[in-house]
């Protein structure tokens, strides 16, 4: 007997925050796909792929609300105010974020603002890039006997300008998965090496993961800062640890094949 999926009513005057996953439309949740098809207005991050935005009906208003390092930048307070204004005008508002709304997506800040304004909202989980992008690239972030721990961290500074303690993280886990870290990777790599990570440790840059533009570049921690400066503009995830070498050993005939653009630089 066929099962019917019943979605909650996307009522006018409400906001849904949804994760768009790592980029491939096939990796959207059914709830996120329903929200895209139903929303009157979609405020989307720069990390949401064009293939996913193309799923929105022609009548849907698409509003970019992106944050790119050294590029377009929509202040968070302006995004909060826009969500409240659109919902107050009785629109069905979808805040569409790359990955998961609560994994380095500032979804918590937006929920606090909506709650303070009395706006009804719902949060739809998404596949975080740290899990979805790495798995789709056949890069296991844990592996028995090699990596029994993993840390997810951002390369961005906090609102007070404080930096992540990468020297501490160097000793905290076998695998490090870094979001938004390209711009500061020279300093990050230096901190990791000074704290005891090996200069020869494998590093992978995942660019535009799970999309037709995906590229995987493998190098070492010592060479990675130089490589980071040469990369094309793209959504980038950085993986550090012995598991990068394990992923390189996998055969290409897998459920999520490693793309032909895989390269090694050093």
Characterization of this structure:
The protein has helices at residues 30-38, 50-53, 76-88, 107-117, 129-136, 166-170, 185-194, 224-230, 243-249, and strands at 15-19, 41-44, 61-64, 93-97, 121-124, 150-154, 175-179, 202-207, 215-220, 236-240, 263-264. It is α/β, with parallel strands linked by helices and 266 residues long. Strand 2 (41-44), helix 2 (50-53) and strand 3 form a beta-alpha-beta unit. The model is unreliable at 251-263 (pLDDT under 50).
The biggest beta sheet is recorded as: 6 strands, mixed
- The helix/strand order is EHEHEHEHEHEHEHEEHEHE
Count the helices. How many? Answer: 9
Amino- and carboxy-terminal Cα gap: 56 Å
Structural class: alpha/beta
Helicity range:
25-40%
Radius of gyration: 19 Å
Mean pLDDT: 90
- The general outline is globular
Provide the low-confidence segments as ranges.
Answer: 251-263
- Compute the number of strand runs: 11
Question: In what order do the strands lie side by side in the largest sheet?
Answer: 6-7-10-8-9-11
Structural features:
five-stranded parallel β-sheet, 28% helix, 9 helices, 266 residues, alpha/beta, six-stranded mixed β-sheet
Would you summarize the structure shown here?
It contains nine helices and eleven strands.
Topology, element by element:
Elements: E1 15-19, H1 30-38, E2 41-44, H2 50-53, E3 61-64, H3 76-88, E4 93-97, H4 107-117, E5 121-124, H5 129-136, E6 150-154, H6 166-170, E7 175-179, H7 185-194, E8 202-207, E9 215-220, H8 224-230, E10 236-240, H9 243-249, E11 263-264
Parallel strand pairs: 1-4, 1-5, 2-3, 2-4, 6-7, 9-11
Antiparallel strand pairs: 7-10, 8-9, 8-10
Helix pairs in contact: 3-4, 7-8
């Amino acid at each position: 007997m066929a099962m019917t999926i019943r979605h909650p009513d996307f009522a006018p005057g409400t906001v849904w925050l949804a994760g768009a996953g790592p980029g491939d439309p096939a990796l959207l949740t059914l709830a996120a796909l329903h929200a895209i098809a139903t929303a009157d207005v979609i405020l989307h991050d720069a990390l949401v792929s064009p293939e996913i935005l193309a799923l929105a009906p022609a009548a849907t208003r698409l509003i970019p609300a992106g944050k790119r390092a050294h590029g377009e930048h929509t202040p968070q307070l302006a995004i909060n105010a826009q969500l409240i204004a659109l919902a107050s005008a009785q629109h069905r508002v979808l805040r569409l974020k790359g990955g998961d709304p609560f994994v380095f997506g500032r979804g918590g800040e937006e929920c606090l603002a909506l709650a303070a304004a009395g706006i009804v909202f719902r949060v739809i989980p998404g596949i975080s890039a740290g899990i979805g992008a790495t798995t789709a690239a056949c890069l296991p972030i844990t592996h028995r006997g090699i990596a029994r721990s993993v840390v997810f961290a951002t390369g961005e500074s906090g609102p007070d300008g404080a930096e992540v303690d990468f020297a501490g993280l160097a000793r905290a886990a076998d695998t490090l998965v870094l979001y938004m870290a390209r711009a500061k990777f020279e300093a990050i790599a230096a901190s990791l090496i000074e704290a005891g990570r090996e200069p020869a440790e494998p590093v992978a840059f995942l660019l535009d993961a799970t999309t037709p533009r995906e590229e995987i570049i493998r190098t070492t921690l010592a060479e990675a800062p130089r490589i980071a400066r040469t990369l094309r503009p793209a959504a980038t995830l950085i993986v550090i640890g012995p598991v990068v070498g394990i992923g390189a050993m996998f055969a290409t005939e897998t459920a999520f094949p490693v793309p032909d653009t895989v390269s090694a630089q050093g």
